[in-house]
Amino acid sequence: MVTLRSQQPMVYVELSPSALQRLAGVPLSEVDAGGVGADAVLPWVGSLCDELSNHPAGHREAVMRVRLLEHLRRADRVVVSEDALRSLDLIETSGGTTPVETLARHAHLSSRRLRYVMQGSLGITPKFASRVARLGSAVSRAVAGAYSWAQVAAESGYHDQSHLVRDFRDLMHTTPTAWLAEEGRNLQGWQRPSR
């Protein structure tokens, strides 16, 4: 996300791990994802923000695409493990419910080797990627409307509601109910799950 100026909309860009690694110029395992601004990883973001703020809102997406493609063309090719990327895709597709052993089998690696490959290439382990994907799945289910948090947990692959609460606390630093109370007013068409 890039803040242009107060009172202006945001520009949101979702990059694949390999694109981010190429733009950053370092392995993702060396990028601290916790609370750093985009300009700390991509120094040219500040000048891009200035450029975008000088364009009408309707043209910003096109300008952003052109600038990102220019930076990607100039960036050195960085080798990212295909096994790591395929495993990450499988994790995302399954909503984080595919066991690490199954991921490893699909990659023709041992579980230990897959952990090493993903940590080195992407900066995360398969278990952590699965936790994030499972929580994302739970958030989507809650936003779509659910009868209860227990239902959200069960349908998202959690053993029970307490595991869902633990992931909310560990990964989002809040509880499901507090998150929904905060975000609910920003979501259209959501229904509050019961406790």
UniProtKB/TrEMBL annotation:
PANTHER family: BLL1074 PROTEIN, HTH-TYPE TRANSCRIPTIONAL ACTIVATOR RHAS-RELATED. GO terms for molecular function: DNA-binding transcription factor activity; sequence-specific DNA binding. It comes from Lentzea xinjiangensis. Coiled coil: none annotated. Gene3D superfamilies: Homeodomain-like. Residues 100-182 form the HTH araC/xylS-type domain. The lineage of its organism: Bacteria, Bacillati, Actinomycetota, Actinomycetes, Pseudonocardiales. Pfam families: HTH_18. Transmembrane segments: none annotated. Keywords: DNA-binding, Transcription, Transcription regulation. SUPFAM superfamilies: Homeodomain-like (SSF46689). It comes from the Bacteria. This is AraC-type DNA-binding protein.
